[in-house]
Amino acid sequence: MERILEIKGHIIRDDILKKIDTSVEQYHGKYKVLELIVGDRVDDESTAKISIDVPEGKDEWIYNELLNLGCTIPKMNEEATIKYSDKNKTVPDDFYSTTNHPTFIYSQGKWIRVQHQRMDACIIKRGEEFHCVKLRDIKKGDAIVCGHAGIRIEAPQTPESNDFAFMVNDVSSERRVQIGVQRLAEEMKEIKAKKGKIVVVAGPVVIHTGGIDSLCNMIRGGFVHCLLSGNALAVHDTERSLYGTSLGIDLETGTAIQGGHKNHMRAINTINRSGSIRQAVEDGTLTSGIMYECVKNDVSFVLAGSIRDDGPLPDTIMDLIVAQEKYAEAVADADLVIMLSTMLHAIGTGNMLPSWVKTVCVDINPAVVAKLVDRGSAQTQGLVTDVGLFLSMLDQKLQ
Amino acid sequence: MERILEIKGHIIRDDILKKIDTSVEQYHGKYKVLELIVGDRVDDESTAKISIDVPEGKDEWIYNELLNLGCTIPKMNEEATIKYSDKNKTVPDDFYSTTNHPTFIYSQGKWIRVQHQRMDACIIKRGEEFHCVKLRDIKKGDAIVCGHAGIRIEAPQTPESNDFAFMVNDVSSERRVQIGVQRLAEEMKEIKAKKGKIVVVAGPVVIHTGGIDSLCNMIRGGFVHCLLSGNALAVHDTERSLYGTSLGIDLETGTAIQGGHKNHMRAINTINRSGSIRQAVEDGTLTSGIMYECVKNDVSFVLAGSIRDDGPLPDTIMDLIVAQEKYAEAVADADLVIMLSTMLHAIGTGNMLPSWVKTVCVDINPAVVAKLVDRGSAQTQGLVTDVGLFLSMLDQKLQ
Amino acid sequence: MERILEIKGHIIRDDILKKIDTSVEQYHGKYKVLELIVGDRVDDESTAKISIDVPEGKDEWIYNELLNLGCTIPKMNEEATIKYSDKNKTVPDDFYSTTNHPTFIYSQGKWIRVQHQRMDACIIKRGEEFHCVKLRDIKKGDAIVCGHAGIRIEAPQTPESNDFAFMVNDVSSERRVQIGVQRLAEEMKEIKAKKGKIVVVAGPVVIHTGGIDSLCNMIRGGFVHCLLSGNALAVHDTERSLYGTSLGIDLETGTAIQGGHKNHMRAINTINRSGSIRQAVEDGTLTSGIMYECVKNDVSFVLAGSIRDDGPLPDTIMDLIVAQEKYAEAVADADLVIMLSTMLHAIGTGNMLPSWVKTVCVDINPAVVAKLVDRGSAQTQGLVTDVGLFLSMLDQKLQ
Amino acid sequence: MERILEIKGHIIRDDILKKIDTSVEQYHGKYKVLELIVGDRVDDESTAKISIDVPEGKDEWIYNELLNLGCTIPKMNEEATIKYSDKNKTVPDDFYSTTNHPTFIYSQGKWIRVQHQRMDACIIKRGEEFHCVKLRDIKKGDAIVCGHAGIRIEAPQTPESNDFAFMVNDVSSERRVQIGVQRLAEEMKEIKAKKGKIVVVAGPVVIHTGGIDSLCNMIRGGFVHCLLSGNALAVHDTERSLYGTSLGIDLETGTAIQGGHKNHMRAINTINRSGSIRQAVEDGTLTSGIMYECVKNDVSFVLAGSIRDDGPLPDTIMDLIVAQEKYAEAVADADLVIMLSTMLHAIGTGNMLPSWVKTVCVDINPAVVAKLVDRGSAQTQGLVTDVGLFLSMLDQKLQ
């Protein structure tokens, strides 16, 4: 069935026409650009009139795609469709699955911004409000936004037009990292100055590569407001503080200590005896390191458990539903998220982040950054480099 | 203090003298080989008499190391030291931390084999028996094996003298994978013939690289007896079965489907409606794929949750304490564990495996195999290759 | 200075407006889209009128860029500017540096296609003809095309609209390789049927990973018409044929042969004694392997030397000027180039290839494919996989 | 045939018994350790008497292996066997193929040290002297050392007993790089103090990652005495100096310059006009950068050509026989070789290095270091890190 679509949005900047072309091809349909009125510049909005003829039922996919690209379809400025869940944790088949971009629902004649924005969620109506809710939290009877009418998304800034961008187009180890470090340090100073929130997501490689002292300096300097990690970082940080090793490797000399493999179990045993990391700090057992500085400087931390954890430490949350919720709370009002050498926790955090939170991912493996961007966290700036040297240089620039 | 140590074991084969040398150097001690009587061949046991002079308290480390290498120290054929835990989840500081090798405790005049062998555990005495118990499961009052007296370990076979070995010394992508596939297929046929147990640990890359059909064939063929994985494999397998895509990529053409990103959420919604994977198979919702074949062929599966899970599916265990226990049960009596493209679950499983369970780790990233071996699962045979093509070739060889 | 630019080309498909935007921004200029008349579909040509105001001298860069994108600038349908070299190996500063796309020069009232198209070359006029010539081959007095007037480029097909494309947008190991193998096999059969030319560029990893038999089958089957490689492939192929090893590793068992490291020197010594690879085949010294099959099946080969070569074999060309020329001849009329696990020779060959030659690059390291695409060989289809298994599967599909 | 072998050497330290075991197994022979008299410590020499029974002709392999491990076999303290080449570039089949360790030949009653030690060479007798000569330089009639009699090798120091060692056993990105940088800086200061020679082998990634300024500082500071590289480093260094870009990427902002891809060809054109890099410095064309500092500080450089070179620059040696010889001269008397992000030139240089020259290889890709070690340059210390940040930190430590 042929329909005339009028769209308004960043048609040139966001490659809307090319995306329509691909969509229509996929469904073996036809289209024709009837009219295109461009703004003066690429960043301006344009309007287009396009005739689209796709098989019945497939046009919905295309509208959805256009919505997700930030277009408005004038004829669709109608009330959003609400259907009701008939079973806990389930929604109607045509539920609208969210992106991580700012989203608005047309309801009772006005556009209302959706709260708790995150990707891969459902939108439910609660009174006058609309909220992103995860599928697992849907209750029977919840009012679910379905279809594509009455939904509008604010197109994300492309990295090219973003002051903060320091790595355009690609993920490569053959780039000058100093530029990225410099811009990140400036960003962090600005956020600190205006009392914003910086969240660090870190893996144990931070310890193994010698980044403890730099990260401790950053915590003491007020540049870290929340630490998200897993069991291993805290175990090896404690191991270093108590015995000087990380996974049995002496961090001063870089050599393996005979029998040192046992040290991480001794560290867990010691914290267990105190009862928790905080108590180990308070009773004088733990006197240095990243976790120590977090406790001393009132930096909150969340340690999420995983299938490979030894111990775990009493502070590690092994119920992942709870851990996901605590992570989500931690990043909800973040201004900047810095991900250091941890694919697992980085993707976990990336899934929860709205697209307007600046995100930097540092890893020596280009595949980790590429994967994060692939999964929708396109606002991520990647730095492919050695995380130990990176932290050392970032710490220098912050002083 | 100088002591004369008499040791008996695979002194040549397992580099015992070199390891003593390193240990003693580390503690700035002295040693002298007084006598060395070698067997006829490298694989025979030898005996040595060595004078060692290390600072007070450090000799314990060296004895521990020697024990873990499978040496017996004649003077130490004395009763093992037992101390008691004075608080849940804690043990005395000199607790013996286990390896994944067969371990024996000298108690009331005889050597008793430790049960539930795994690495990084404590040994507790229960009646006449000795068990590996994880630190977190220690209760106040438990009888803990401490120190180094009365402990003996059976040295593991070195890969060189192992028929099954197909990748000696190194982890490299520049090796002929066909040899490894051939030997693995033979091993699997033998295990099947004698009604043994093969456990497959798999990540979602198995789906993305087109391994579904091969793995389904292997399940139907009776070559898989348990599947350990996470939420993502089951989600993308279900997504493929219901919509033909995995993370929105059409698996027949390799191209991205517009709007296809939503498919994994639709898949979760659909399984939620049925109630579980098994119920989805039984009510006719799920009619193909890896999870379907597991249900139809009575292959048990355990899906362990993680911080990055969407959904999760009703079958995914988000309490990691429970998930670790179910994993551990699954591998307890395994004859062969095959790890396919999943660092997280492979290391998790590796931590639980006794050293006598044959283990194969397949990944396109050499760092994953190297890491698994580093962490103590030295029995692991690594294959650095494309997991999709690997499964296709393994399936051919099994037919 | 403000100028009105009228352009015609694939303005939508090739993101011309966005590229103008970026260019103008870079020179702190201004622009305004005065008019844009789009074709019916994305693949149709569009015309635009744009006002551009950039600092003196910078507009040339933008014109060049537009030319390279396949736009024509109507006012510029004027004679190309010719200047003369005043020294061997040098050209005027404003020389036109070529892309690898079909290029036409406006001369004496008509558009003439440039011959010997390759990237990073100069264009010289010889009589009525225009040729790509490498900087090093420029002679004093040569007539060089300069500036941007009278130059037109045919925009390359984007991979999306290319039947042969099997890997769109990204380079990842998490893709289904079988699809790519299937399409490549079909392409090869078609080329063979119409007596086209397939060039294989291969590194020694083909030997180490067990690809010899498959590649030999392909040569005997008539699917390889030229082999480009270096010294190492031929050395290790010969080593395998004579002693069963490659770099001392037994290819049947995968284990290192004691003293086997010497085998590659013995192989070179043996070929030296015969005088060349061809003579070694003819005198019965060499009786199997890739080089043997090349000689027996009249497949030409070029072995280019490198700084790391042992020997080299008498057939290895150590004068790289000569080697580059022989490579360039070999690919000049190729229909398909398959690059197997060799960054060095793949980039060397990529530099010489016009953009209309289909190119496939197979490597287990995603960085190699990414680098090839980065350097301008954007027509390259990448497959991130194990080259030994890849060849085995390709050989199966070709039979 | 059974023979009694008496060997003397670092039998324990260098795993001689295990290596004999492997060798004998391979030839389906038998052996028995009749006697083993160990030194007091692992580093002391031991003596052994071993009965070996292997098939005729295979014992030579084992003797060769033992020789290469630094053992002396008393009965073999006889004159070395000399045979004569009967054709240029060929030697008798049983020629002795060298290692990179110090080698001695027994001739006329005394041990004479071989000159120009390098791996994979032949040894020829010239008057009273013995020289390593590459196969390609053998002339008809040359006197070649063959067999295994009268050859002795000084076992290399194992890394464990080496002060300079900072990365034992493995190649991993999960290590603390600062320790390695610190030790390297100390080593460089010592070498400079005693007027030794430091050779830097560098790839173009040094430029792309922003290492120019640090390396320039090191050259001016007297820490670099020779630079070995290829065409690309010099091209991109010149490009940066003349236009601020490297492969078209602005090194100050990290963004791609439109049309910037042409810059490397313009750089070559400019140097061609001057005639050479040195002349470009002298005529004031080139006023900064690595090549500029080399010229100004009398640091010699060798640029070896490759199949992928554009241009090349007039200074690039495209005859690889000449380039290999100039490289070999440059490293002959080196005290330290630092390899920076270039697999090609690093392996090329590694092949030429005697085992007593300290070598450091820095690369973000662990496979590069692993490959270098695999190929026999086992003295190589590897650092898996970002080369730009590495140089920045090394420069700081040197000041």
From TrEMBL, chains A, B, C, D:
Residues 3-101 form the LOR/SDH bifunctional enzyme conserved domain. Keywords: Lyase, NAD, Nucleotide-binding. Residues 102-179 form the Arginine dihydrolase ArgZ/ArgE-like C-terminal first subdomain domain. Residues 183-394 form the Arginine dihydrolase ArgZ/ArgE-like C-terminal second subdomain domain. Its EC number is 4.3.1.12. It is an enzyme of class 4 (lyase). It comes from the Bacteria. This is ornithine cyclodeaminase.
